[in-house]
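Hi Y.,

Following your request, here is the sequence exactly as I used it, all 699 residues.
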Amino acid sequence: LLAAGGDGGALRLEAAAARIALEWVLASRHATDVLFDPGVRASTDLLAVVQGFHPDPLAQALLAHWGDAGLAVALPAPAVHGRAALHTAADAEDEAQRAAACVLAHLAQGRAPVALAATDRALTRRISALLDGAGVPVHDENGWTLSTTRAGAQLMALLRACTWDAPADAVLDALKQLPAVEAAALRALEHGLRRAGLRQWSAAVAALQGRASQAQAAALAAQMEAWRAPLRAARPLAQWLQALRELLQQTGLWDALAHDSAGEHVLAELRLPQGLEADLEALDGAGRRLALAEFTRWVDAVLETGRYRPEYLAGAPVTVLPLPQLLARPFAALVLPGCDEKRLQAAPEPPGVWTAAQRTALGLPTREQLAVVQRAAWAHALGTPWVDILWRAGDEGGEPLLASPLVLALRLDGAAAPGGDARAARAIAPAPVPRPLPVGAQLPVPRLSSSAYADLRHCPYRFFALRQLRLQEEEELDAQIDKRDFGTWLHAVLQHFHEALRDAPGADRTALMDEAAARATREQQLHAGDFLPYASGWPQLRAGYLDWLAGHEATGAAFQRAELKASQPLGALELVGTLDRVDRVGGEGGTALVIDYKTESDAATRRRIQAGGEDTQLAFYAALMGDDHLRAAYVNVGERGDTRLHEQDDVVLLRDQLVEGIVHDMARIAEGAPLPALGEGAVCDWCAARGLCRKDFWE
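Below is the corresponding structure, written out as tokens. Let me know if you'd prefer a different format.
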């Protein structure tokens, strides 16, 4: 098609694509090819072509080939409209419920079969689920992409878990899909990972090695590594399919997919059954080696283009199908959801990246042609005897939506009337619950931390649930680094820095802080990309902290200890905690200064100081020291370079008041005083016990 010489690289690529397309056409054969055979033409008197909504190049070519013996039959538009009812829904869920109610109402009136138009796949699947819950069989002619089936999701989860940098959440998600995994071992592994906060799977494997106390979890992690290992090296596509087949068989997922209708389609589309991969070996470029990421993208693309259509349900009273496929179908009623301006456009946007001129040259439908087709399909749908048209007034993000221009025109013509809500109303008597008043006298707390006592002060019920019953929510293994992770990292950095500076007081402080930051990053296994938003402000934070430290040391303060674990007996109770830092002001025999780091806004730290006895953290830490001549302060380390010290005045007095309050509160709990849920505002917004106290359902 184009000589090898010259510099027309783009033209040569286009010519190669054209050659492949031509060879494919010559080598392939379709069922309709027989109609072009001269023998068939000579032995047949008439070829009737029933026209659809879309112009069909194949049908036009057949009519031209058959000449006078070819007849085009166009189905007439409905002479009259059916009874159309308009329904405006508040949101997607309201729309789905009202659409399902319309279907049930038609069936109750004996109008069957009912067509459910698939204008929005997510909405249609929700309606189908509601109908299934009501015991109504639904036949879906349109089907859905293989990537949205459970079988496709299981296979993709397994592939994503095999990447070298897989998050722990991705691996846990894959393990939950595998029949070969024991449930007890999986629970032990997940509990251990969430408790340790290990985000990356590689870190989890390293942490579990040699842990006799977690033998079950360690064995499962080792088994997962054995499954993941063979998928690390690059290889040609056919070898990838063989490796994936072996992985599915080893994990027990192969049999589960083979015995599932959608799973069979997934295996077939990917050429995974034995011998089918040979179809791909003859393709040009089949020998190119693919990395796991490239192979995963290929699998995802195959599942996105493949469709799963469930087997026909004989006698199903409801059929799901696209709007154009209503042509010449005798339905008694039609329920048409998704008729808003986004999902039912009067002139749909043509798919692909082609311009209008390119679409015309390639014979692809233009926007104008699609508009004609859309209006023809709409007019034919309105010929159904009973039609319910639904749309939502707002989208998920709160954006207001109008009805489709086709609906607005129908309303303007007076061809439709407002429809009523077909959902059956139910009277539900209010059943509020009383406020919980548990008694914790039989659940003594031998060790009390600052955060535990803060729970008691904020909400006695939270103290009962989280500290006495010891109920704890599982931590999320979120790959995103948040503010709390930054605070944990900064505490470790400052500890390493001050300990190194104490051992080498003449060293370069900037270099020491950078070394401490690198060490903390390694220890906490933080990835540079995830930590970038905080790392970008590190130079400012470092400079601001060193400036503050120089001024702080000029007052006679010197670092002594960091992350000091302290305890203090208080009758039968033991106060425990970890102090971020302890300085000594005024030399060896000077006053101890207890410091707690804060990375919140400086205004929030000032409010803590202004709260006096309401903020118990510094007073509690002072109680751990057993020193009547100490000082205590918050050091707010700002990310923008501002580090400030906020000292709590009269901390010894506040400590004594706090200790007296602790003794009084613990005595009342031991005497059987109830522990009501008294939290308000932000205390309740982020409370792990919110679902236990049932605050939203109180009398």
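The mean pLDDT is 89.

Thanks again,
Q.
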